[in-house]
Specification:
Number of strands: 10
Number of helices: 13
Bound molecules: fructose -6-phosphate
Shape: globular
Largest sheet: 5 strands, parallel
Strand order of the largest sheet: 2-1-3-4-5
Mean pLDDT: 95
Low-confidence stretches: none
Structural class: alpha/beta
Strand content: 15-25%
């Protein structure tokens, strides 16, 4: 039931702290992630993996895009990510010892399932791993290994808690791959600590709900919006744009901020709100100069910024602060305000938030 919440989506947004805690439960060891959490034989397999191919659709695909930044940076394993509807019909090259990873809330998405079957019948393939929210689903049954996200039933068509529990699972995969390669180290200890703190941090992020609701009126009359991020925050910008499109029917696009001057800057004027995700990471200064370019063209800026990022409120610049956080964890935290923004804009517009037009929760046909 929805309990006291007006929509399932809002309830599911607010459940994220709890379901992230459940997804972590029993999977963190002392200073590292346990390497056997993907099923029997998975600890031995982790050290044999030479390449990773991630395949998914929609929101799950965005989680895979974040994972690519994490896995290549922290585990050093070359990683590719592709939408399932393209992967399944492409005769791509599968390098030797590839771990084939599917990401899916439902475990029944037709294209993702077909991509899994396609991979299983080709060379290069080492094993398949499903990161999935529905136990006993086709994806889990047909994969060699699995890691369940414990998000619980997700009723809202727009995916929220499934996405953040996928991210947590993918960070655990990253750390398991690293452990299999180099044993214990300070980075793993730091991130295991950060993961343990995460449920509490998520609740701090959700406390922004009221501020975001007040902000949402600035979007209700708009026809377009542009989301910007850099590095692992680019897929988070994509996810923010998808959420806004799906439930408020406002056309939204996301760009890696460095691409602005290669085209989309031409769209920016005072009717184009620009939303930026700006944690205190190594790219924040570059992002800030991209934002100045937007402001110079009259674009109204809505910046979700880390506590210590030096950017100030002013004419046409709105800044909402999020708690200071380990930069690896930032994609998880900064997803929350974008989910809440889409939700409140949709409510203002009076759309059917839990069942947006033309969409189905589980896409079991091509
Ligand atoms: C977006 C959304 C869809 C799904 C996509 C994949 O809010 O819900 O984009 O993410 O259809 O579904 P799963 O994860 O079940 O494979």
């Amino acid at each position: 039931s929805r309990g006291n919440y007006r929509h399932f989506m809002l309830k599911e947004i607010h459940e994220q702290s709890e379901v992230i805690a459940k997804t972590l439960e029993g999977r963190l060891g002392d200073g590292h992630v346990m390497t056997n959490i993907f099923g029997s034989g998975s600890d031995a397999l982790m050290s044999d993996v030479r390449h990773i191919q991630i395949v998914a659709c929609g929101t799950s695909y965005h989680a895979g895009m974040v994972a690519r930044y994490w896995i290549e940076k922290m585990a050093g394993v070359p990683t590719q990510v592709e939408v399932a509807s393209e992967y399944r019909y492409r005769d791509g090259v599968v390098p030797d010892n590839t771990l084939f990873v599917t990401l899916s809330q439902s475990g029944e998405t037709a294209d993702t399932l077909a991509a899994l079957r396609h991979a299983q019948s080709h060379g290069g393939y080492l094993a398949s791993l499903a990161i999935c929210n529905v136990p006993g689903s086709s994806m889990v049954r047909e994969s060699d290994l699995s890691l369940m996200t414990h998000a619980g039933p997700e009723i809202g068509v727009a995916s929220t808690k499934a996405f953040t529990t996928q991210l947590v699972s993918l960070l655990m995969l990253t750390l398991a791959l690293r452990y299999a390669r180099s044993g214990d180290d300070a980075l793993q200890a730091r991130l295991v600590g950060a993961l343990r703190q995460l449920p509490q941090l998520i609740n701090q992020g959700l406390a922004l709900d009221g501020d975001i609701e007040r902000l949402s009126s600035a979007f209700a009359e708009k026809h377009h919006a542009l989301f910007l991020g850099r590095g692992p925050m680019f897929p988070i910008a994509l996810e923010g744009a998808l959420k806004l499109k799906e439930i408020s029917y406002i056309h939204a696009e996301a760009y890696p901020a460095g691409e602005l001057k290669h085209g989309p800057l031409a769209l920016v004027d005072s009717d184009m709100p620009v939303i930026a995700v700006a944690p205190n990471d190594e790219l924040v200064e570059k992002l800030k100069s991209n934002l100045q370019e937007v402001r110079a063209r009259g674009g109204e800026l809505f910046v979700f910024a880390g506590e210590n990022v030096s950017i100030s409120e002013g004419d046409g610049v709105h800044v909402l602060r999020l708690p200071e956080v380990d930069e690896v964890i930032a994609p998880l935290l900064f997803t929350l305000p974008l989910q809440l923004l889409a939700y409140h804009v949709a409510v203002l517009k009076g759309t059917d938030v839990d069942q947006p037009r033309n969409l189905a929760k589980s896409v079991t046909v091509e």
